[in-house]
Amino acid sequence: MPACCNPDTSMGFRDYVIILLLLDTGIRVGELCGLTLDTVFLSIADQVFVKVLGKGRHQREVGLISEVAQQLWKYVNVHRHPRDQDVKAVFLSRNGEPLTINGIQQLVQEAGKRANIKGARVSPHTFRHTFARMFLENGGDVYKLSVLLGHSSVVVIENYLKDFESRSARRVQSKHSPIAHLKLGRPKGNFKKSSTDMLDE
To answer: With contact defined as beta carbons under 8 Å apart, do 105 and 91 qualify?
Structure first.
């Protein structure tokens, strides 16, 4: 993570915690901006969570793993510097004012550039998609995932499920392929795909 954020500075630590939180919860960037101090619950070790205000003004609880909860506590108590006591938003700008959606999008993109990420979209929504895919890959239930992501119906989550099923099928293909059970021997030389290879057609 140091490649994309400098946790030794208050702003770098803020960015680090934002990325952790997006990946750990899959919440929308607008929901992250809407987090306030009274919606963050970190005092009971086995019951750490945030209350998120989602679409349609529906509120839901999303849990945090202990490592993320610890870093969030540190940000709030050490690195968070509000302009004045009236500012209740959790994540703040350099001026001590609430971070905007655009501000979070920019800091995520900048973190991606510093980490030299290429060939992949770097955005807050990418973390949401990654959270959903890994939740399913790790055995999570599709209905619980729908609740955690704040969807009113599992129909909305079908795209995540299709992506997961496609990846899962591709990974086991070599194990079940008829060719895998034939003793073809090793090919001579290395496979090199040319510009005129029929695989391109």
So the answer is: no
